[in-house]
Amino acid sequence: MKLIVAIIQPYRLEEVKKALYAEEVHLITVSEVLGHGRQKGVTEYYRGVRETGNLLRKVRVEIAVNENFVEPTIKAIMKGAQTGKVGDGKIFIMDLKECVRIRTGERGPEAIG
Predict the structure, then answer these.
(1) pLDDT: which is higher, 59 or 47
(2) Which helix (H) or strand (E) holds 98?
(3) What are the residue boundaries of the structural domains of the chain, listed by start?
(4) CA pair distance 29, 104, nearest whole angstrom
(5) CATH code of the domain made up of 2-112
(6) Which among 8, 54, 62, 75 is least buried, having the fewest CB atoms inside 10 angstroms?
(7) Which whole-number Å values give the CA distances from 94 to 11, 12, 70, in the listed order?
C-alpha cells in the first residue's frame, strides 16, 4: 500500500480528477495549501513597485492506493497537472504501513477499496 501526495496548481485540479477517474481511482482527499518551490513565490508590480510574494496557492491531493494502482495514479496525476512550466508541482510516494476502514474495521489493502 502507498500514500501518494501531489502538490499541484489549483487550476489543474479538474484535469487531474478527470485523469484519475479514467484510471478508476476515485478515493481522493483535496486540500488548499500555501507554499513555493524553486520559484520562491510570485513577482508582481503594484503601482509601479516590484513586490515579491512569499507563498503561492497550491492544491494538495492525497490518495491511498494498493500496489497495482501506484503507476496508473502517478501517470494520471502527471497527465492532468503537467503544463511544462515551472510550478507544475511534485508527487511524493510513501509506504503506507496500515489502513483501517472505520465503518467495518477492515484492515490493509481491503480497507483502501
Answers:
(1) 59
(2) none
(3) 2-112
(4) 20
(5) 3.30.70.120
(6) 54
(7) 25, 23, 11
DSSP line for 36-62 = --TT-S-EEEETTEEEE-S-EEEEEEE
**What is the average pLDDT value for the chain, to the nearest integer?**
90
Q: How far apart are CA 106 and CA 113, in angstroms?
A: 10
User: 3-state class of 14 per DSSP?
Assistant: helix
Other CB atoms closer than 10 Å to residue 65's CB: what's the count?
A: 22
Q: How many CB atoms lie within 10 A of CB 8?
A: 24
DSSP 12: G
Kindly state the average pLDDT of the residues 81-104: 94
- Residue-wise pLDDT for 50-76, tens only, equals 556 677 889 999 999 999 999 999 999
